[in-house]
Design a protein that fits this description.
6 helices, six-stranded antiparallel beta barrel, six-stranded antiparallel β-barrel, mainly beta, about 10% helix
Length: about 475
C-alpha cells in the first residue's frame, strides 16, 4: 500500500490556511510555518533554517512546542515551507535557558539557509518576516529597535512591527542576514515584541551554549533497521528478511520503504503465523531507498510509521545506475496507449500509440492507461527475470510497479505486451488536486539490472506538446 507521507495533514491545512506563496527572495525561502495537528490544525509559530558552525540548523522559540521529557513533541508537529513541502518535527533540543531550541526534522523540505549577522545591524534598516496566527506570511519593516538584556546575560532587543506576529518571526538586515528572532509579544503597546539578538544566536549556534541532549525513556531507545534486516538483490528485486524471527511467526510484521526522492511511503505486511518471511521490494536503479521494520503490532499505517521515524534509523540502500540492455539482440519500441475502460484488451494485443495526450485524458476515470512494449530477441531457452515499470515525474518522484519478465522461445519473434499503469498516474494526480502538473514524464522499464526502454512525453497547460519519444 502506498501512502502520501503528509497528505492528510496538507489537505487539512489547505482547508484552514491561506494558499502558500512561493518564496520570492532568500529571506522567505529560509522560513517555515510551525503547525501542530491533534483534533484540529493549529499554527503555533515560525522556524528559521540558519547557517551554523556545524551545518544548517532549524531553530524556533522553545515556547512554541511543548515536549515530553525525551524531547519529543506532545502533539504531532510539522514544519511547512511556502512551496508546500512538509517535514515532521521529531525532537526539540533547547539551547539551555536561552528560549531558543534546535529542531530535528524528517521530510522533504528544500529551504534556503539564512546567514547569521554578527551584530544587530542598523536599527533603521531592518526587515521582519513572520507568520500571523492565520498562517499568512508577511514581510515588512521593523522599527524602534533597542538593545536589552535577556535572562542569563544574553543579548536581546525590543522592536515594533505589524500586530499579530507569531513567535519565531525573524529580523534581517539589508543584506538578508538574520539579526534576531521574536520570542514573545510585549504588552506595552501595539505591535511590540521581545527578540533574541544575533550576538546571542551566534553564541548558541557556535557551541558556546550547546543544546542539551534530550533524555530518552528506556522504552524509546533508538534502534537501527540495519540490525533488524538482511537484504539480497536479484536483478531489480530487493528481498528483505527480518533477523532472529522464527517461523511460523508469532506476531504480524511490516516493512516500510520510501524512495528518498518521493513524498510518499509504502508498506508490506506479513500476518502472524507466516511460515515464510521475505519482503520483495523494487530496487529501482540509480535511486536511494530507506527501509524501516516493525514487529508485534496488528495496526499498520500512519501511527506506526510516525513512531518508527522517531525511534528507528532506516536502512539506507543506494542502487547503481542501469546500463542499456545489450544481450539477446534485443530490440524494442514502447509508448503509452489510452483505451476506454470498457474495452477488453487481449494479453498479447498490440495497442496503438495515443498522441495528443492531455492531463484530462490521463486522469479520466473512464480511461485505462497502458504502457505498450513491442519487442523481439534471440534466445535458446526460456528464462524469467525481474521487471520494473517506473513512472518518473517532473518533480523527480518515481512510482513503480513490480512484475516479472519471461524470455520465451514462442514469443521472441514478436513479443508484444503491455502493463496497466493507470494507478501510477492516478496516484500521482491525487496529491496535485486531481491534475497532472505540467512537465516531462518518463515511463521506463528495467529487465533484471538492465535499462530496456523509455518513453517520455511533455504535458503543457492544456495538451501534449508533441507525440513523445522513446529511447
Amino acid at each position: 500500500m502506498r501512502k502520501w507521507l503528509v497528505l492528510a495533514l496538507i489537505m487539512v491545512m489547505a482547508a484552514v490556511l491561506p494558499l502558500a506563496a512561493h518564496a520570492v527572495d532568500d529571506k522567505l525561502g529560509s522560513v517555515a510555518l510551525v503547525v501542530q495537528h491533534d483534533d484540529e490544525v493549529q499554527v503555533v509559530g515560525m522556524a528559521v533554517l540558519v547557517q551554523a558552525k556545524d551545518g544548517e540548523t532549524w531553530i524556533a522559540p522553545t515556547s512554541v512546542i511543548q515536549t515530553t521529557d525525551s524531547g519529543k513533541p506532545v502533539k504531532d508537529t510539522y514544519l511547512m515551507t511556502e512551496d508546500g513541502l512538509v517535514a515532521m518535527v521529531l525532537t526539540v533540543q533547547p539551547y539551555g535557558n536561552s528560549g531558543i531550541s534546535a529542531l530535528n526534522c524528517y521530510g522533504q523540505l528544500e529551504p534556503v539557509a539564512a546567514p547569521m549577522a554578527t551584530n544587530l545591524g542598523d536599527p533603521e534598516s531592518q526587515a521582519i518576516v513572520g507568520y500571523l496566527d492565520d498562517g499568512t506570511l508577511i514581510s515588512s519593516g521593523a522599527y524602534n529597535i533597542a538593545n536589552c538584556p535577556l535572562e542569563g546575560g544574553l543579548s536581546g532587543m525590543t522592536l515594533t512591527a505589524m500586530e499579530g506576529l507569531m513567535p519565531g518571526s525573524a529580523t534581517y538586515d539589508r543584506d538578508g542576514r538574520l539579526t534576531g528572532m521574536v520570542l514573545a509579544s510585549l504588552g506595552e503597546g501595539e505591535g511590540r515584541y521581545l527578540a533574541i539578538g544575533a550576538p546571542a544566536l551566534n553564541a548558541l549556534l557556535s557551541g558556546w551554549t550547546t543544546p542539551g541532549p534530550a533524555p530518552e525513556a528506556e522504552e524509546e531507545q533508538t534502534t537501527k533497521a540495519e540490525d533488524l534486516l538482511t537484504c539480497e538483490f536479484d536483478g531489480g528485486y530487493l528481498t528483505v528478511t527480518p533477523v532472529g524471527i522464527s517461523t511460523p511467526t508469532e506476531q504480524s510484521m511490516a516493512v516500510y520503504y520510501m524512495d528518498s526522492g518521493n513524498a510518499y511511503y509504502t508498506w508490506l505486511t506479513e500476518d502472524a503465523g507466516a511460515k515464510e518471511i521475505g519482503f520483495t521490494l523494487p530496487a529501482v536503479p540509480g535511486r536511494i531507498m530507506m527501509i524501516w521494520f516493525a514487529y508485534g503490532s496488528d495496526t499498520h499505517g500512519d501511527q506506526e510509521f510516525e513512531n518508527l521515524l522517531m525511534t528507528q534509523e532506516p536502512l539506507v540502500i543506494e542502487t547503481p545506475a542501469a546500463m542499456p540492455i545489450d544481450r539477446y539482440e534485443y530490440w524494442q519500441e514502447c509508448y503509452l496507449s489510452v483505451v476506454p475502460l470498457a474495452k477488453v484488451v487481449g494479453v498479447s494485443e498490440r495497442l496503438e500509440q495515443t498522441v495528443g495526450l492531455t492531463t484530462e485524458m490521463l486522469t479520466d476515470p473512464s480511461n485505462k492507461l497502458y504502457f505498450q512494449v513491442n519487442s523481439h530477441y534471440v534466445i535458446t531457452e526460456n528464462s524469467e527475470e525481474s521487471l520494473l515499470v517506473c513512472l518518473y515525474t517532473p518533480d523527480d518522484s518515481c512510482l513503480t510497479d513490480i512484475a516479472g519478465f519471461i524470455w520465451g522461445l514462442e514469443y521472441m519473434e514478436q513479443d508484444d505486451w503491455h502493463v496497466d499503469v493507470t494507478e501510477l498516474f492516478t496516484y500521482y494526480a491525487e496529491i496535485n488536486d486531481g491534475i497532472l502538473p505540467e512537465g516531462i514524464y518518463t515511463l521506463t522499464y528495467y529487465i533484471g539490472e538492465d535499462l530496456a526502454g523509455s518513453y517520455s512525453f511533455t504535458l503543457s497547460d492544456s495538451s501534449l506538446l508533441d507525440g513523445g519519444g522513446e529511447t
